[in-house]
Structure formats: C-alpha cells, structure tokens
Amino acid sequence: MHWLTFTFLCALALQLAVRIWFSRRQTAFVMAHRGEVPPAFAGVVPLADHARAASYTAAKQRLFVLDSALGATLLLWLTLGGGIDTVGDWIGRTGVAGRFKETLHVLGVFSVLGAVGLPIAAYRTFGLEQRFGFNRTTPLTFALDTLKGWTLAAVLGGALVALVLWVMASAGPRWWLVAWAAWSAVSLLLMVAWPRFIAPLFNRFSPLDDASLRERIEALLTRCGFSAERVFVIDGSRRSSHGNAYFTGLGREKRVVFFDTLLSTLSPGQIESVLAHELAHFKLRHIPQRLLVSLVLSLLGFALLGWLAERSWFQAALGVTNPSNATLLLLFVLVSPVFTWVAAPIASGWSRRHEFEADAFAARHSSAGDLADALVKLYRDNASTLTPDPVYSAFHDSHPPPAERIAKLRSTFADGGAAR
Ligand SMILES: [Zn+2]
Q: Which residues surround ligand 1, an ion (CB under 5 A)?
C-alpha cells in the first residue's frame, strides 16, 4: 500500500472518530445541564425553553454524526472505491470530449455529492426543524431553493472550473500561480456581486425603515461613518423562525442584514446595539483581515496543487486510474479537508476574538445592556444551548459561549459602558 493511501485512510478514520467523540461530549454536557438554567440567564430563559434547547442540540448532533459518517463513506467510494473514475466513464459515454468533458466530470462528482446529501437536507428541514417548531419552508420553496442553488452552482462553479482547467492546460509551468490569481479575482468579484445579484434570488431585501427606529439608527450610522442605504431586512420568516443578523459584501457593496424574525422580537434599543455589533465587523476591518488570510492560504493551496500535479503517485494512491486535470482538482478539493480540519480551533478562536471585539465596539457606541438583552432573546428564540461543552466550543464555535459573552457585556455595562 502506498504511504499516501495509508495516511489518507488513517486521517479519514481519525477525522470521523474525533467528530463522533466531540459530538458525544457536546451532547453529554448539554444533557447533563438540561435540568437547570445557568445563573446568568435565570428568570429570563424559562426552564422549559432551556430543556428544549438541550433536546434540539442533541438532535442536531445526531444528524451531524449521520452526515459525517455518510460523507466519509462517500469520500471513500469516490477515491479508493473508484467513484471518480466511474463518474468520468458516465460523462465519457455521453460523447463529450476535451475540456468540456473535464468540466462536466468535476460538476458530475459534485452532483453525486449533492444528490446523496439531498435526503439529509430534506430531513433537516422537514424532520428536525419541523419537530422543534422552526420550519416554515414549504416543499415547493425547498424544491425551488434546491433547483436555484444547483443551477447557480452549475453555472458559476462550471465557469470557474472551466477557467482553472484552461489555465492548467495553457499557462505553462507556473500555471498554479495564474490559476490562483484567477481564482482570487473571481472570489473578490463574487464577494462584491453576491449581496446585490445573487442573495436576492433567494430572499427579498427591503430597506430598514421603521419610523420609530430611523432617527436612532441614522445617528448610530453617522457616528460610525456608514450609510443608511446599506441596512436591509430580509424575509427570513418565509423559511424558518430562526432569527439572525449578519454583515456581508465588500467596498461599496457592504451591507448589514437583519432577519425580519429577529427584528420583530427586539426593542429599538436592542436593534441599535445589534446593528452596532455588525458595523463593528466593518469598522474593525475584520472582513479584509479574513480575506487576506484566505488569499494567502489559497496561494499555499495552489502551490501544493502545482507540486502534486507533477507527482504521478498522488492520483494513483488515491484511487484514480485514469488521471486528468479534472481528477487532480477533484482529489485535491475532496481530500484536503481530511487533513486541514485540524486547523479548525485556530479559525474558531480567531472568529471568537472578532466577536468579542465587535461586542466591545457595540458597548462603546451603543449599549452593552441592550446588546446583552438582545443576545439572550436570540439564544432563547433560536434554542441555542446556553451550556456548550467547553472543549467542543473551543474547537468548533465561531461565537463565544453565551455565558462568557453575556458576562463580559454585563461587566462593561456595570462599569458605565452603556453611557453614550
Ligand atoms: Zn458578530
């Protein structure tokens, strides 16, 4: 057995084992704390809601383990099981050839992944989310969303794959550098275009114009040097009762987006504080920082891809008997996560630091007390667990554990941080 085959099998087994171990830890910890609301939330989050959040967390973890096991099995089939070759044969039988065939080969493998994942996605919406009372998606909306998502992936993904394959074939020995430049340009373009052209295909975006809010929102935006045309509300309630707010876009296309479901439960002061938190991600330049890191990491990725392209053992050791540029790309994209997941705690830790920074910014420019109250509502209404396992949370969570986050805000509040 080639050393890479062996390493890949070990890494895949380790990844699955660690995922299951983490998942069990999280479920056990959450269930052990099911019977008592943590002190920081006593009186605000009823025990019944707290217990329901625990059951919801456990149910999500069970689905996650099933999904991980299915993903690992599918990856084994695609690689050592010869699945990538098989899909290539299917595409070859249609009579297409050349770069078009290679592009279809890549899309074909992702279609298999999408098709196998579809029952899980359907169960998540109509089983899990339905059972806990969150689902509002109709089967028709689900079907249309899936269709739109796949069409978009085929068109945009297909164009990007075709571009990279063309560069690989025609840009000489340093093709990986050219491919990285093309990849980066397309990623930047998508970041700018996504909020304006693509997100509206799925949701309706309307301006946040509530008379009772407008004055204080505009005052906050002026204080933070942001324009009011950049704050939107989306009709998230069409699909789910989960509420949230997020920031997106780049340059002149940056936006803060509120779900209507969140907006309807918050007071004007709480809305302002959540907006201040989201604005902080722009003001503190979190987006360019993340972008820079992802550009550097993708450069390393393309350099490695360029090196692997010259190593005939790479594809052979991972089960491809009929190698091409398409299978090289496929293997690289499918197999890298089996090794890169170990960096998850670094990414999560960095993200949690950004969240704390954004909370501190919101406390300075709006109200720490209002933000804390808004977060408690968000946790309660989304049935987010208030008691995550500390080890699980440190590894996986992009946001700080609720108790820690609220405690930090409350102490700022006590220090007079709420003063404008
Ligand atoms: Zn945030």
A: 355, 358
Per-residue model confidence as pLDDT tens for the chain (420 residues) = 999 999 999 999 999 999 999 999 999 999 999 999 999 899 899 999 999 999 999 999 999 999 999 999 999 999 999 999 999 999 999 999 899 999 999 999 999 999 999 999 999 999 999 999 999 999 999 999 999 999 999 999 999 999 999 999 999 999 999 999 999 999 999 988 998 899 999 999 998 877 778 788 888 988 888 876 788 999 999 999 998 898 888 877 888 899 999 888 999 999 999 999 999 998 999 989 999 999 999 999 999 999 999 999 999 999 999 999 999 999 999 999 999 999 999 999 999 999 999 999 999 999 999 999 999 999 999 999 999 999 999 999 999 999 999 999 998 766 544 444
What sign for the dihedral angle of Cα 47, 52, 53, 58? positive
Quote the ligand 1 centre to 355 CA distance (angstroms). Answer: 5
Distance 356 CA to ligand 1 centre (A): 8
Q: From the CA of 278, how far away is ligand 1's center (Å)? A: 6
**Distance from residue 204's CA to the centre of ligand 1 (Å):** 22
Instruction: State the CB neighbour count (10 A cutoff) for residue 194.
Output: 16
Is 67 annotated in the active site? no
Q: How far apart are CA 105 and CA 155, in angstroms?
A: 14
Structure tokens at 138: 């109709």
Distance (Å) from CA 412 to ligand 1 centroid: 17
Q: From the candidates 359, 370, 373, 389, which is the catalytic residue?
A: 359
Catalytic position from the list 129, 278, 370, 389: 278
Q: What is the pTM of this model?
A: 0.92
Longest dimension (CA), the chain: 72
